[in-house]
Amino acid sequence: MTATIRTLEELAAEAKRFALAVKPKERSATLVTLSGELGAGKTAFAGAVAKALGVGEAVTSPTFVLEKIYALPVCDIERGFDRLVHIDAYRLAGAAELAPLGFDELMRDAGNLILLEWPEQVGLDADPRVAERVRLELQADGSRTIAYG
């Protein structure tokens, strides 16, 4: 599926649609990768997903802290997720660099919805554990294309 996004309102609506459609895995975290060039909207999409899931605080890029974990409100716990984990792998150079973040432990918890930006930096772009791959592309006219799968 592909969608064209022209405004921040459209991005928020698409992220909400995505957030409500993503279903938890039974025995592990639900890993969603976000790919695209700098400025394509990966962090904006992650922030809009977080807002759709009820995160009240502003979601900013975890580029320098690498990982941010947000507790989800009770209404989403009933859907099966109790935490949103936002990881930015832009500054990492391989899967081994995810270990200090406790990535393997995070992946074992079915209550986690993990949004991972820059999966190609850590070799997760083709990983079979990925539940959904989201690719954002900035177009010449300023719109964005979001492709799933």
Give the helices and strands, then pairings.
Layout: E1 2-5, H1 8-21, E2 30-35, H2 42-52, E3 67-71, H3 74-77, E4 83-88, H4 103-108, E5 112-117, E6 130-138, E7 144-148
Parallel strand pairs: 2-5, 2-6, 4-5
Antiparallel strand pairs: 1-7, 3-4, 6-7
Helix pairs in contact: 1-2
Description:
By secondary structure, this protein is of the alpha/beta class. It has a single domain (2-148), classed as Rossmann fold (3-Layer(aba) Sandwich), CATH 3.40.50.300. The chain is built from four helices and seven strands. Strands 1-7-6-2-5-4-3 form a seven-stranded mixed β-sheet, with helices on one face. The longest helix is centred in the first third of the chain and has 14 residues, at 8-21. The chain starts with a strand and ends with a strand. 34% of the residues are buried. The mean pLDDT is 90.
Residue share in β-strands: 25-35%
Through-space gap between termini? 7 Å
Shape verdict: globular
CATH class: Alpha Beta
* CATH superfamily heading: P-loop containing nucleotide triphosphate hydrolases
Neighbour order of strands in the largest sheet: 1-7-6-2-5-4-3
Strand-pairing-aware structural class: alpha/beta
Q: Roughly how many Å is the radius of gyration?
A: 14 Å
Q: Write the H/E string, N to C.
A: EHEHEHEHEEE
What's the number of structural domains? 1
Task: Provide the helix percentage.
Answer: 10-25%
Task: Return the average pLDDT rounded to an integer.
Answer: 90
By DSSP, the count of extended strands is 7
Poorly predicted parts: none
Largest sheet: 7 strands, mixed
Tell me what the CATH architecture is.
3-Layer(aba) Sandwich
How many helices does DSSP assign? 4
CATH topology call: Rossmann fold
